Amino acid sequence: MLKGEKVGLRARYDEDIPILRTELYDDVVNGSRAESRPWRPISPSSKDQRLHVDDSVTDHVPFSVVELAGDTLIGTATLWGIDTHHRSAHVGLGLLPSARGKGYGSDVVAVLCHYGFVVRGLQRLQIETLADNFAMLRAAERNGFVREGVLRKSAWVMGEFLDEVLLGLLAPEWTAR
């Protein structure tokens, strides 16, 4: 397990899946805002890659996020789009509704940065998030991510186009912190 101040990132357990499905992926609005594709329901028998881990896939590493104080599942975290040639990856996370607004997001981003830069030896991490996702923007910037641009009206979410913000962090910037 990778540990931050408040959270741990560990392997996905079978018992995590029903909780994540119900509390995270069955939420139409949140699911539509978090994914780059239209929301769709996930059946209990589905082997959807957002929930089930395929260890043969090497370009993304999914984690379950637990609160260290009680080992309680509070969400998911992923390093995805891992490019071993350019030594870069994207950062993603999703917190259960009960875990939002408690400062866990910043800690999750910090642990993902440690994993990406220290464990995997990457050079660049990137985050794309909706411009009105203030919690993610705050978590990214607290960890040293720099706003690199706005992708205007690039995300179709619940009947409207929304702006996305692109943020990046380089290994030397992370080390200097």
TrEMBL record:
Pfam families reported in the protein's UniProt record: Acetyltransf_3
This protein's record includes keyword Electron transport: no
GO cellular component: cytoplasm
UniProtKB keywords: Transferase
Molecular function as annotated in GO: protein N-terminal-serine acetyltransferase activity; protein-N-terminal-alanine acetyltransferase activity
Top-rank taxon, per record: Bacteria
Keyword Ligase: no
Ranges of residues in domain N-acetyltransferase: 18-163
Protein name: RimJ/RimL family protein N-acetyltransferase
Species assigned in the record: Amycolatopsis thermoflava
